[in-house]
Protein 1
Amino acid sequence: MKIAIISGASAGLGKKLLEKAIPAFSDIEEYWLISRSLDKLKEVASVYPGKSFKLLPLDLCSHDSFKTLSDELEAHKHEVRLLINNAGCGFLNNVGDGPLDEQLSMVDLNIRALTAVTHIVLPYIPAGGHIINISSIASFCPNPRMTVYSSTKAYVSSFSRGLWDELKSRKISVTAVCSGPMDTEFIYKGNIKGKSKTFDTLPYCDPDKVAAGAVKAALKGKAVYTPRAFYKLYRILAKLIPHAIMINASRT
Ligand SMILES: NC(=O)c1ccc[n+]([C@@H]2O[C@H](COP(=O)([O-])OP(=O)(O)OC[C@H]3O[C@@H](n4cnc5c(N)ncnc54)[C@H](OP(=O)(O)O)[C@@H]3O)[C@@H](O)[C@H]2O)c1
């Protein structure tokens, strides 16, 4: 059976990525959706009564979840045509302030889980398959007050670029999606909304458009997708201008 796996599919961008993937990948027979909340996943699946789903209520910060996913894949031996590593979190705080758990959860989910899920799923991805990794504009330059978050997303973008090259000969595409702020639960859970001048003044990205663009970019085999001209320009500037200067504009 041909399947797709989407992490963080119960809310925000993940929900939109599912909505856009369904018509774009007509050969996919089953969608495996991951998040911690089974109820939310059931709600998402109920929107598509004609589609087949496997709902995996997993906490990707827990090592046990990797074993569960690995066992499921081993038991079914499906072809994974599309893997979307979308689950992520971000908290506004200086390093040394606030709960340590928040800082570590960014490393665990954004880096460790993304790496583990990719490693576990990769043997099941055939030629012609696609991987979409949700990174961020935060990956372009360090963002003080979100130093850990921006560092995790720098990893996601760098990991995706390296993997893109490793998988070229297997004809598997890898796309890093670098969105600007989106009005999802993320900015409320992370204590960001209303607490950061930069976040509150930056132009927002529409998750619907980001998801559509991400799917399109993956189908074209693009290594990086950055929505909005404003953030495309920011990406170029962050490459040309030393970080010591850029950092003044990227402070959250
Ligand atoms: N919103 C923004 O401003 C923004 C900007 C750029 C990039 N991004 C990136 O976009 C991606 C999606 O974020 P979003 O804005 O859609 O955030 P969101 O609305 O908070 O959704 C996050 C998703 O991840 C799941 N999740 C969180 N912790 C998890 C865990 N430990 N294990 C498994 N699943 C978990 C959540 O479901 P449960 O809570 O049920 O587990 C939810 O489905 C993230 O990688 C984020 O870094 C966001």
Note: Residues 7-14, 34-37, 40, 58-61, 86-90, 109, 134, 136, 179, 181-182, 184-187, 189 surround NAP (CB under 6 Å).
Protein 2
Amino acid sequence: MRTDFAALAVRPIEEASYWLATRQKKSPPSLHHPDDCDIAVVGAGFTGLWTAHFIKALAPETRITILEQKQTGYGGTGRNAGMVSNCIDHNHQLAQKHFGQAQAARLAQIGLANIDELAAYATDCDFVRSGQLQMALNETHLEDNLQTMAAASQLGIDGYRCLDQAQTRQRLDSPLYKGSLYVPGGGIINPISLVDRLQTDLQAVGVNIREDTPVKSIQKTTGGARLILDNKQIDCKRVVLATDAYSHHLLPGLLHRFVPLYDYIIVSQPLLPEQKKQLGWQNKEGIMDGRTFFNYYRLLKDDRILWGTSDASYYGNRVDAAFDHSMRHYRELQESFDRHFPQIQTTFDYAWGGPIASTTRLTPFFGHQLDGRLLYALGYTGHGIGSTRVAGKILAHMALDAKSELLDLDLAKKKPMPYPPEPLRSLAIKIVTSSLRKVDAGHKPNLVLFMLDRLGIGFSS
Ligand SMILES: Cc1cc2nc3c(=O)[nH]c(=O)nc-3n(C[C@H](O)[C@H](O)[C@H](O)COP(=O)(O)OP(=O)(O)OC[C@H]3O[C@@H](n4cnc5c(N)ncnc54)[C@H](O)[C@@H]3O)c2cc1C
């Protein structure tokens, strides 16, 4: 069955993203105090909303104004797959490599505690703690799964379990699966319900949220900082920049630390009862496979399959609504879906893309500018649902000059290795992408990948 993706690809993101399109109607944000404030937050995605949440928890009297260029959840936050990873550091092996054994163990514990706290908060956001299955499509992936399980065990994390082919196909049936790794702790969530929950709670404690308000620039003043808007300005003591892949629009200097990439997703029609039976998938695990450019997928509440790809596109550092659709990706997504599930005939009702910020260590970084008046965190790669919450906690402590053990983590203190500027950047991405595609096709890593690995540089979405 063929989908008319060309018809889907003309929709604005508010209709294209399943989450934004099916969002419950919410009342427009109300304003509680003049916009001049103690702390201004730019960007109303998870990072901005969690930062405001934790600032209010630490210092309830703080006056906060959040400024969002479009609607809350307009960025990656309203466009993701809603798969909640148990890690805040991409994966345990990378954490060991970048931060050492002791800090990797600490990060693993923080990641799990973070998901527990998130689950306790997000009680009305369809959060199912189903864990994840890392599907092995070849022998190398089976070995990788064993190594991931060993790394988790070295860090004292229990519950990882390798499943053989039959056990895997019992959980979810595809002829492509050779086996899998069950990854405990995480699950699936409705991300826009979480945004709406945060927004409602923030408004209840007096936070101003201004939508359709792009910030044009940020300046230092004697007593703090000034945000320049289209037709006015806002003065504050400190600014938190929570704009992830959009951050270079306001701070071009940050661009050497990240690459903006676009990921794409399609969503099927609701499965028929006999199709559900054919698939299995009783436990609703979030699924990924072992390739660098992997598919990620999950069931939605109304029995649709959300089917995404990490085969992200780089558009020369541009982040713009012009890239919200990609016919090439939609066609490839349909093909990969058909290969995985030949038993399921369906068409797709939603298709969209969104920007992520990738760093060389695949984890976020933190910093400040304007003599400490401007703070930022970005670079969650494709794993931001859990890690934005921890980032919000870190930013809140930074913004209030409050003490926290989180601020001592290398993750919070150290920056990832830089990427080269253009035109070298495009060339490097092209070479690395084509090398990684060969590995996904079953070849051994080439010299380029070997060297990058030695330097601890990753490339993924
Ligand atoms: C297709 C896709 C799939 C993904 N899947 C997953 C997943 O399954 N699991 C997972 O953990 N993570 C996933 N992610 C990543 C995750 O969504 C992000 O890491 C996370 O949402 C980042 O949140 P954020 O608040 O930092 O940034 P965003 O959500 O991008 O928010 C930034 C906000 O800043 C606003 N803004 C930008 N510039 C300005 C300005 N000048 N003035 C005012 N406002 C401005 C934007 O409009 C935007 O709303 C996915 C991302 C994408 C795109």
Note: DSSP finds 14 helices and 18 strands in the chain.
